[in-house]
């Protein structure tokens, strides 16, 4: 199963997005990210099943939650 | 012991608050937002729930909630980061030192008279706004009497004139409904440990939604690590991390989540009503006590009563009550402007401040003990 990793701007936004996804029945996990993903040192992201990718990106957009990157891992 | 110093800090907390604090320390004791392990993630969850609950109280966004050490840190920060670089600071004549001292340190401040009716307050306020004002900061409710300012009218005026507006809601949160949109505030500040029944160690600022997408509009205030963009020497340009540095107070945040739930379940109106009943009872009891004088009773009844007995120093009365197992606060309550507005003497006054846990029997006991002093 492929996972999808969304790099968020902050831990706060990760938490906000995580709650939004769970409220919409989408399983996810908040993870700490290193420089490979953030380019600026410490950061946070959300891991989801990549089959939910379109849905979560739509939710993020509809709720004005910014993110910096999306990639399949 | 009878505790009547709730304006300083609420002493009796709901059982759920004690449990929340214990759980935060014993079960979720990681550093929020720093590491990737379970304990850090759980602590992060608590912090976010705290932001969420606060934002629900004020009708704002959770990412616009900044956590601080206490309400004084919050007001200091909000006033500093919002003030236009030029322009005077305008405060009310009932301000707590958290706002008054900050305004004085900023160098150029004016005071509008908040002792009259709402219309009189607005006349004084708007007359001073003819001058170049870079910030308005004022209380919602006084910490020494029942005075409540017309912050919706003040905020609407500030919004029309493009003046940043900070509300110190330390004494009104949990007793008065407060919406950041309705009062047109740029920031609402408060503590965890008063009307929301959390523990000491946390304050907060609810910023207006517009700062979420424009965090760089806010000057930075504290600088340090926050788990975001660690390789960057600058603070992030988005909230809340732009204004947060260092370890956040997870146990206090957990207590705030539980405390807000307690207040919400009980109902803010119900809490205010219970406290007003006690205030009315005490005020009426003092009115028949020989040599007793109450200040500010013309403003109605909320959770606070300020009084003196004859020419006795207020601290002596407070000591006497303490020796009888009753906790109150004498002196000036970090509110010299308010005391000046109420024309209390140079020996200060005695403040009794209630919480939802106080009872009418306790008020009866206080009156009996005061009668004994006479």
Question: Can you offer a commentary on this structure?
Answer:
The complex is a heterodimer of chains A (73) and B (374). By secondary structure, chain A is of the alpha+beta class. Helix content of chain A is 37%, strand content 34%. Chain A has three helices and four strands. Chain A has a four-stranded antiparallel β-sheet. Chain A is globular and about 30 Å long. The model of chain A has no long low-confidence stretch (mean pLDDT 92). Chain B is α/β, with parallel strands linked by helices and 374 residues long. Helix content of chain B is 39%, strand content 14%. In chain B, a hairpin with an 8-residue loop joins strand 9 and strand 10. In chain B, helix 1 packs antiparallel against helix 7, helix 2 runs parallel beside helix 7 and helix 3 packs parallel to helix 4. Chain B is globular and about 70 Å long. The two termini of chain B are 21 Å apart. The model of chain B has no long low-confidence stretch (mean pLDDT 96).
What gyration radius of chain B follows from the Cα positions, in whole Å?
21 Å
For the largest sheet of chain A, list the strands in their spatial order. Answer: 2-3-1-4
Unreliable spans of chain B are none
Provide the residue-averaged pLDDT of chain B: 96
Instruction: Give the strand content of chain B.
Output: 5-15%
User: Biggest interface between protein chains, with counts per chain?
Assistant: A-B, 20 and 26 residues
Question: Oligomer, anyone?
Answer: heterodimer
Short summary of the structure?
The complex is a heterodimer of chains A (73) and B (374). Chain A contains 3 helices and 4 strands. Chain A has 73 residues and is of the alpha+beta class.
Brief descriptors of the model:
heterodimer, A: 73 residues, alpha+beta, 4 strands, globular, B: 374 residues, alpha/beta, seven-stranded mixed β-sheet, three-stranded antiparallel β-sheet, 11 helices
